Amino acid sequence: MVFVWAFLVGGLICVIGQLILDIAKLTPGHALSILVVIGAILNGFGLYEPLIDFAGAGATVPITSFGNSLTQGALEEAEKHGLIGVVTGMFEVTSSGISSAIIFGMIGAIFFKPKG
Length: 116
Known about the structure:
Organism: Gracilibacillus oryzae
Strand content: under 5%
Number of domains: 1
Shape: globular
Distance between the termini: 44 Å
Mean pLDDT: 86
Keywords: Membrane, Transmembrane, Transmembrane helix
Protein name: Stage V sporulation protein AE
Low-confidence stretches: none
Largest sheet: none
Transmembrane segments: 6-24, 31-48, 93-112
Helix content: over 70%
Pfam family, one: SpoVAC_SpoVAEB
């Protein structure tokens, strides 16, 4: 049943993103930013962690989880270090994911040629 809920929740998040693209006629960058902000807001209200507990990968894989991670890191470090912790916490929690994206993007650019 865990797989079903993960599929449904992850699919619902993707449907919301697709509706943003189709109905609002926004660019993919706008849709991406909106979904990150939604994840951050849900974390701020304490709603994203229960969603992760319920849906597992259905809530951690979509881009909304990135907003959740940013907010969670900022809040944890703000409690420890005050205002400077807000900035450092965001980078500390998300640095491995961002670094991986940069490294694998570079590897892809080295080994593959664009068609255009």
